[in-house]
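User: Can you predict the 3D structure for this chain?
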Amino acid sequence: MVYREGKITKVDSPDTYCRMGNQKGSEESTVVLADYKTDPDAELERPERIALIDTSNSTVNLVELGTSYSFRSLGRGLHGEALVLGTDGSLHVIDPASGAVTASIPVIDEWEEPVEWQQPRPTLAVQGHTAYVTDPGSSSIHAVDLESGDVIESAELPHVPNELTGAGD
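Assistant: Here is the predicted structure, written as structure tokens:
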């Protein structure tokens, strides 16, 4: 659904059934990044496509990542770029306008989404030009400079990380 100029418009789905429940927007883009699930009966679906919903023209562009991800894998960069932490351990940078994957930055080892949604899994949070990625498998956190594509710092944590967020100025 898109709300614009006092009206709510339904965006047509490319598939008969889809769920785009986890979404990340950006003030720098009219495109919203969303997960994309198509199996109505799945207890746990591990999608390999994401949706880019253009709110200016109510269209959906599907992007094949070649790797799955979880609901805690989505983020947006400072310039509006779409970010997805894949189960291949890489942070995938996507141009929201074209849907092109412009970079895949290796950050952690391959991982698998746990069946129970409350269980720890790698998580992505973005602050400015830095993406933070947790790794429950090694109880660590990694900082990725989105401008250079480099992992600029890593640290071990005293406990297994489960969720991650941040606040800025």
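The two ends are 30 Å apart (CA to CA). The CA atoms of residues 12 and 58 lie 8 Å apart.
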